[in-house]
Design brief:
The chain is an alpha+beta fold and about 525 residues long. The protein has 23 helices and 24 strands. It has a 6-stranded mixed beta sheet. α5 packs across α7 and α16 packs across α19. The longest helix has 19 residues. Bound molecules: D-xylulose (XUL).
Length: about 525
């Protein structure tokens, strides 16, 4: 059996799989807000941060680990676990002093993790991915590298507020003495991995690429980016490595306290998005995942470290080897809901409208589908931009607007994924709106690729369990065929006659966008 853990923003989740029988044996979760109310973090972070600061208490993550393993040891056979891997919310960082390793090596299992490791923290809180306080530091790092293009070329992303490098720089500037005392800087993923392994372990390429510090060509910490970020930073970071590197055996704390076998091994942990790529069964170039949520995301495996020249997208390591892109679109459900409300429709009417006028109206009317500021493309839109027939622009025929909004969202995705030079061969669609057949067909038609619906809850923790099994020698693609199956009867083929229609719409969409920003 293999155990995958995911320490996300709101919860810590475990998925236990039996690789030989292809079964998920057990799933268990600790919700930070509900299960650990003493941390005053109902949504997993400390509310009320000023100037865009969003932090969590790393001791909460440790208490969650103890609670999760206590629950697991009561409800599952941990004695059969051969390897553990995991993932964490990306970008968050934990700061520790020179005693960290010794404390890990001598943990007393009659006590808890939080009280024994608290004295090693050089910073009581951990900035997480929701933090936007580092605008100045991003500008400083960018200037020091001679511009955004160079930061993108080296690290795969522009210097961006939530990424760890700018966060480290801000810590160094605001509390230089504490920075000086810091011997280890960990990501959430590598912090939890270190606790499980009983020693400070490496940062993997998947999560490490979310720091604005990893050189994607060399897969090493980039000396120019390190210098631009904070002094002596190289010494405080463990060397980056591949996610499936086995670290050794699980810490005695976990084997003696919770019944894991003493020869249970641990792999590195990665970011939640790279782990989801594995859990969604999309680690081969040509596989694309589109997740329709509050924001929509598009992520896809890539063989080489290509980067988005516009700097809208991010590039991370793919735990199965190679790289992956992550492109976020802020106006996802936010925009779908805004249009639904504006047209006075309920969801079922909205869904029916999406199905209506199928091929006849395809690509005829254009909408830049942004009801507020967008990140891909980065622009402060004040509302959608419409170009088409009178019936469309005046909303006298509301179905035309519903169709154009959705088409606009997927044309925008197709346009902003072109830099990857990957033609999607399979699209895995997930998230609330993916259940709608009209929307799913539209995705197939606009990308001209087959679409499968996949409904994996806990895809990051499942991905981590699969990484653990692969690190033990199992064939990952074979495991993914079993564990990451699309929902029954959920596959849709593209309507090939619409290929030229959407190729033309894409050009007109691009021109309309260029006329605005
Ligand atoms: C990715 C990002 C989020 C976190 C959420 O860049 O910031 O998806 O990983 O857990």
């Amino acid at each position: 059996m293999f155990l995958g853990l995911d320490s996300s923003t709101q919860s810590l989740t475990a998925v236990l799989i039996d690789a030989a029988s292809g079964q998920i044996i057990h799933q268990q979760s600790v919700n930070f807000g509900a299960d650990l109310p003493q941390y005053g973090s109902p949504s997993g972070f400390i509310p009320g941060g000023i100037n865009g600061q969003v932090c969590a208490n790393p001791l909460m993550w440790l208490d969650a680990l103890d609670l999760l393993f206590a629950r697991l040891s009561e409800s599952a056979n941990l004695g059969a676990v051969r390897m553990i891997a995991g993932s964490g919310q990306q970008h968050g960082s934990v700061y520790l002093d020179a005693t960290f390793n010794d404390r890990l090596a001598s943990l007393d299992f009659s006590l808890d993790l939080a009280s024994q490791l608290a004295p090693a923290l050089t910073r009581a809180d951990s900035p997480i991915w929701m933090d936007t306080s580092t605008g100045t530091e991003c500008e400083e790092i960018t200037a020091s590298l001679g511009g955004s293009n160079e930061v993108i070329r080296r690290s795969g992303s522009i210097a961006i507020e939530r990424f760890t490098g700018p966060q480290i720089r801000r810590f160094y500037k605001t509390d230089p003495a504490a920075y000086q005392r810091t011997h280890h800087i960990h990501l959430v993923s590598s912090f939890i991995a270190s606790i499980i392994a009983g020693k400070s372990v490496s940062i993997d390429y998947g999560d490490g690429a979310g720091m604005n510090l990893l050189n994607l060509d060399k897969l090493e910490w980039d000396s120019k980016l390190l210098d631009a970020t904070a002094p002596e930073l190289n010494d405080k970071l463990s060397a980056p490595a591949a996610a499936n590197c086995v670290q050794g055996f699980v810490s005695r704390y976990f084997s003696e306290k919770y019944g894991l076998p003493s020869n249970c091994r641990t792999a590195l942990f990665t970011g939640d998005n790279p782990a989801s790529l594995v859990g969604m069964g999309a680690t081969t170039p040509g596989d694309v995942v589109i997740s329709l949520g509050t924001s929509d995301t598009f992520f896809a495996a890539m063989a080489g470290p290509l980067t988005d020249p516009n700097g809208f997208a991010h590039v991370f390591g793919n735990p199965a080897g190679g790289f992956m892109s992550l492109i976020c679109f802020r106006n996802g459900s936010l925009a779908r809901e805004a249009l639904r409300d504006k047209l006075g429709l309920d969801w079922s009417a909205f869904d029916r409208q999406a199905l209506a006028n199928s091929s006849v109206a395809a690509g005829q009317n254009l909408m830049l589908p942004f009801f507020g500021p967008e990140i891909t493309p980065r622009h402060d839109f004040s509302g959608p931009v419409l170009k088409g027939s009178y019936e469309f622009e005046s909303a006298s025929e509301p179905s035309l607007q519903v169709r154009a909004l959705l088409e606009g969202q997927f044309l925008n995705m197709r346009l902003h994924a072109q830099w990857m030079k990957v033609h999607p061969e399979h699209i895995r669609l997930t998230g609330g709106a993916s259940k709608n057949n009209g929307i799913a067909q539209m995705v197939a038609d606009i990308f001209q690729a087959p679409v499968e619906r996949i409904d994996v809850s806990n895809s990051a923790a499942l991905g981590a369990a699969l990484i653990a099994a692969a690190a033990d020698g199992y064939d990952l693609p074979a495991l993914q065929k079993i564990f990451c199956k699309p929902a029954k009867d959920s596959s849709l083929q593209p309507n090939l006659t619409l290929a030229p229609v959407y190729a033309d719409a894409l050009i007109r969409y691009k021109d309309l966008l260029a006329s605005i920003c």
